[in-house]
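Reminder: ligand-aware prediction takes two inputs, not one.
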Amino acid sequence: MLSIAEANEIVQGSISTLDSIDVDLFAATGYVLAEDITAKEPLPPFPASIKDGYAVRSADGAGEYDVDFEQLAGSAPGSLNEGKVAYITTGAPLPDGADAVVQVENTEDLTGPSGSQQRVKIVKAAKGPGDDVRAVGSDIQAGEVVLPEGSVIGAAEVGLLATVGAAKLRVYRKPVVGVLSTGDELVEPGEQHLGPGQIRDANRLMLASAASTSGCEVIDLGIARDTVEDTEAKLQLAESKGVDVLLTSGGVSMGNKDFIKGILERKGKVHFGRVRMKPGKPLTFATIDASGSRKAMTVFGLPGNPVSSIVTYNLVCLPALRKLSGHQEPGLRRVDARTQTAIKLDAERPEYHRVSLSWHRAGGGAEFAASSTGGQISSRLLSMRSANALLELPAAQGVLPAGSVVSALLIGDLGGMPVLEDLPMIMPLKN
Ligand SMILES: Nc1nc2c(c(=O)[nH]1)N[C@H]1C(S)=C(S)[C@@H](COP(=O)(O)OP(=O)(O)OC[C@H]3O[C@@H](n4cnc5c(N)ncnc54)[C@H](O)[C@@H]3O)O[C@H]1N2
Ligand code: MOO
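Here is what comes back for the chain with molybdate ion:
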């Protein structure tokens, strides 16, 4: 049987990044850039005040001055007369003739009650030319690549792109993902009265949620009943809807109603149908080539047990969706974590044990602590609740003692880690 590393190598080697499309900046979040973005102009484009205060000639020093004019943000720079200062606001262009800014806190307003001539006392002079002024190009230089191809666009990147005027962008297309459940026992989640032998379909909505979290367009293909005809019809529906990646769940094991592998073998190439992992052993991967007007389709036959399906999604499908979307490093990230309880190992399969990681200070250092989410049977979806990592446990006899350091694959946002109230902030040493 394949290892999970070999399975991922096969998947990553069988798929390529999708074509690129143009998107508006407003809709660009989550995409990967398909071009370098370069700043056409410097930022700031003019010497800009960092403070509200007075634009001065720094050589003039402290003393009392007439206020020549007001230089407000958004106005063209005025020309400062000798022996005077100009009132200036943050972000305004430095007037010609001025070379520094004195913040208002370092001045006293001497304007009389008539207010006819504004005067000010500079109490604390500017240190020299350039004081409290942003030089042209000090934030971004003209010609600088602000974002290279392959950058993932988040909020900060959107801000940068807006700054340099990149209102339309070339990005890699995201895959259209179809989700399909299989099984006669399944009913819709809205069903309040379960009949004999029935359960609600959890996987389809869970996988749809996971794929849309990655920014993919999701197409709901419903539930295929346990017949070859119905399952084939749903695959045809996926093709007709332009699905790039089909996620099925259930029907990939050894039962006499497990049709998925056989159908995929007839339609395309099944690259593997079993992986040495727990949970998720029957994970199946197939590709169906493009033909005529039909797009190429990548198919993951995920095991029906809900935990098996979401764990295999994270370990194999998510990196695949990322590669298709243009991510340069599509794999999950690894950290080391210390186990908080003893964990029984599986003698035959490496196990992906669901844990909640939190950050602990220990001795002189700090480390991740891994708390098990409890019973790990692959039907128990509660074992995924608040799990932000999968411990990579080796296949071995016996028990891994509490306090062992194990590698863990991140599947959740560490920004959502449990909050520890007892962590004081470390204050830097005063010198
Ligand atoms: N003889 C063998 N039997 C099984 C083996 C094996 O090696 N030999 N492997 C087991 C393992 S491991 C897994 S995992 C499961 C996977 O089986 P399938 O992918 O064929 O899934 P089903 O049999 O259709 O369902 C398994 C289980 O999950 C429930 N299920 C299915 N779909 C959903 C859904 N959309 N939402 C919620 N729950 C779902 C289903 O009712 C079953 O209880 O096979 C073992 N068997
Ligand atoms: O691989 Mo199955 O997912 O152990 O239950």
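The pocket of LQZAQKY5 (ligand 1) is lined by residues 181, 183, 185-186, 199, 201-204, 249-255, 258, 279, 281-282, 303-306, 308, 378 (CB under 6 Å). The longest strand covers residues 351-362. We will return to this case in the review session.
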